[in-house]
Amino acid sequence: MATPASVAYEVVDVFAPRAFAGNPLAVVLDADDLSTEQCQALANEFALSETSFLSAPTEPSASHPGSAGGPGADYRVRIFTPYAELPFAGHPSVGAAHTLVRTGRLPAGTLRQECGAGVLPVEVTGEGATLTGGRPTLEDGPDPAVLAAAVGLAPADVVGLPAHVAGCGLPFAFLAVHPDVVDRAVPDPAALAPLGVGEGVSVLSWDAATSTARARVFARDLRWGEDPATGSAALGTGVWLVAAGLVAPDGTSAYTVGQGEAMGRPSVLSCTVTAEAARTTAATVSGAVVPVATGRIRVPG
User: Fold this and answer.
1) pLDDT level of residue 3 (50, 70, 90 thresholds)
2) Which of 3, 57, 181, 266 sits 20 to 30 Å CA-CA off 157?
3) Environment class of residue 262 by beta-carbon count within 10 Å: exposed (0-12), middle (13-18) or buried (19+)?
4) Are strands 200-207 and 171-176 parallel, antiparallel or unpaired?
5) What is d(CA 141, CA 66) in angstroms, rounded to the nearest whole number?
6) How far apart are CA 99 and CA 94, in angstroms?
7) Spatial distance between the Cα atoms of 98 and 128, rounded to a whole number of angstroms
8) Closest alpha carbon to 242 in 207, 274, 203, 197
9) CATH class of 137-286
10) What is the rounded distance in angstroms from the CA atom of residue 264 to the CA atom of residue 234?
11) What is the pLDDT of residues 36-78, one digit of tens each?
12) What residues have CB less than 8 Å from 241, skipping those under 6 apart?
């Protein structure tokens, strides 16, 4: 089949309490015939932290198209930064699923998304979506004092918790600091890159009374710099909270991640983490999705 001259797209704000907040995302529809090179060129043209490309799944659901009852998937998403393809990311998954429902392509309810991390369920409502992360992972991270120095902070700024590298699809290092120093973080790319922090580092403070983390998330190589809302890091936050003993070692705990205030794009990520014997078994992240633009874009030759 010939590649179309142009494709439809939507721009939405994800994990956003209002328009022009949260994390902006381009969603390219009907991307079945786009090559990897064309997807990468379009993601670079949009110049957002990520762009989602939607197509038919490689293993469709066993039930009729548009339903979510079978073992396969209802759609496939490929996720690109302006520089590379990712196997998984939170706000591109939430925004893509909600856009499919809002535009009438799939019904609300539980959708099954195929991506590089496997087939993951996404629960879509009228306001937003809830994503279940992939397999939880946990590794030792860098020394907190060394990581603090790499993000421009002092050893006295950390609160004595391990900087585990944790994730549910994409791993991040988590550096717990005092609340009044979160906004002082200024990463040094040369110092951060060799430290083994996965996709990046979340500098956060934890308020046990409200079960809320206030976070800033920085990419390891800083090509996309700071992110206003990072669903994959919010999922990893749950794994880190369990490992650090900050939430219950058994059962399901709810927590909230506030992010993006320092960038003028406040974001709210509502999360849960489920644990057994102090080991994470599952995590979810949910938030609102607000449409802000629609149009068509030329396909690169």
Assistant:
1) confident
2) 266
3) middle
4) parallel
5) 41
6) 9
7) 6
8) 274
9) alpha beta
10) 19
11) 999 999 999 999 999 999 999 997 765 434 434 346 899 999 9
12) 206, 213, 247, 253, 255, 273
The two domains 6-132+289-298 and 137-286 share their CATH topology (first three levels equal): yes
Provide the whole-model pTM: 0.91
pLDDT at 221: 66
Q: Give the type of residue at 6.
A: S
Question: Secondary structure of 81-114 in the HEC alphabet?
Answer: CCCCEECCCHHHHHHHHHHHHHCCCCCCEEEEEE
Domain chopping of the chain, boundaries:
6-132+289-298, 137-286
Q: How many CB atoms lie within 10 A of CB 161?
A: 18
**CA 228-104-230 angle, 5° bins:** 15
Q: How many CB atoms lie within 10 A of CB 106?
A: 19
- Which CATH superfamily is 6-132+289-298 part of? Diaminopimelate Epimerase; Chain A, domain 1 (3.10.310.10)
How many whole angstroms separate alpha carbon 38 and alpha carbon 36?
5
**CB-based contact 13:290 (threshold 8 Å):** yes
In this structure, what token pair is assigned to residue 116? 């590089």
Could you give the 3-state DSSP secondary structure of residue 196?
coil
Give Cβ neighbours of residue 156 (< 8 Å, ≥ 6 apart). Answer: none
User: Quick one: residue 222, left, alpha or beta (phi over 0 = left, psi -120 to 50 = alpha)?
Assistant: left
